[in-house]
Protein: Molybdopterin molybdenumtransferase
Organism: Corallococcus caeni
Amino acid sequence: MPLTPLPAARLAALDAIAPAAPARLPLLEAHGRFLAAGIVASRALPGCDNSAMDGWAVRAEETRGANRDRPARLRIVDTVYAGHLPRRALHPGEAARVFTGAPLSPGADAVVRQEAARPTDDGSHVDLFVSVEPGHDLRRAGEEVMPGTPLFAAGQRVDATVLGVLASLGEATALVRPAPRVAVVATGDELVPPGQPAQAHQVFESNRLLVAALAREAGADVTHLGRSRDDEAELHAQLETLAPQVDVLITTGGASVGDKDCVKRVLTRMGARFLVDGVALKPGKPVAVARLGSTAVVVLPGNPGAATVAFDQFARPLLFKHQGVLEQRRVTRARLSEARHKQAGLTYLVTVAALEARGDGAEPWARLRPQGAGQILQNVAARGWAVLPAGRADFAEGEAVDVQLFEQPDFHPVEAP
Ligand SMILES: Nc1nc2c(c(=O)[nH]1)N[C@H]1C(S)=C(S)[C@@H](COP(=O)(O)OP(=O)(O)OC[C@H]3O[C@@H](n4cnc5c(N)ncnc54)[C@H](O)[C@@H]3O)O[C@H]1N2
Ligand code: MOO
């Protein structure tokens, strides 16, 4: 099968999955998910005029000219705690004791903090040592949010700060799409689980953990971890059991053309419909995406470096689509820290370790790491991918290319209004 260009393959792969039906989840369970509908403020924040300080609610005009030597003396007529209502309005010459967050007494229009005041010994009056303007140390109703204000659009990620806002509006739940359930199956006769003895020709199995953690970082609930030898019957049995239990099934290894590379063959025999099979991408060329019943399947190459890139380009978008969003990374131009030669027909995604400004006002330099498909260190603490597009073989040191940045992506709802 000819290799599909990367952009076309990424588009085709998205058909392997549909957004999950939205569900109302308790707020903490919605943490990390994406809103399935926009949020409009259902109440004002704050809900009423209230004190920003522990102190005294007053009529500002009655503090005019007050100082340490000539305090303004007002009669104490009420005490108002947060969560309680004032017993009465303030009339001229009156003050109410208030605490932070307590509703403002009708008639009051300012607060004097307690450090600038002292009650008389008999507790009947308070002396105010400062002159304040109307509105001083007050939080006005609706000053932060008015009812009806659109606050969040569909596709907004529910992070800690968003959770806080939703709770402050009185929401107990959020409408989000649930986490995709994921199974990760590693294949290979040479694999030995970490923690067991391994000879030099054996390989500690690392892709399952790597891929499971990558899936979690994309919002998945990794429910099953499987392992199979390069044995068609064993793999068939394993995939047949797992596929119906998950939304996305991810395999690693056995994706290429070797005698024992049987993953695609087994999937085909099981009735999988391939949307992508082989991409003009390095690392990650043998990656495939298929549909097996109602389960999306991503076949990752066994090489850890290739599995990482192929996951990023093919599995991660499926996991987000199930959650109702498309991820859009920031792209910046940067100069290559070294020349690179590549296969002209493939897009190379090369790990960028750092972006360094050199004070000349031009694009930053992208410090490249070696991109060995079989290597595993190059992706630790990376900033992004330098994109060396298909169609050319040689890239010079200092040449500017696109760099896809990992941090602070935008998320857009899949079904844009
Ligand atoms: N004649 C050709 N050979 C290869 C081609 C090709 O087009 N023609 N493609 C190459 C490319 S590109 C890649 S990438 C690899 C991918 O092959 P597989 O997906 O079949 O991977 P394996 O052969 O099973 O393993 C490759 C390598 O990775 C190690 N591995 C596998 N699974 C794990 C794991 N779970 N944890 C850690 N390491 C793992 C494995 O031991 C091998 O060293 O094929 C090229 N060959
Ligand atoms: O292109 Mo393979 O997936 O990296 O060596």
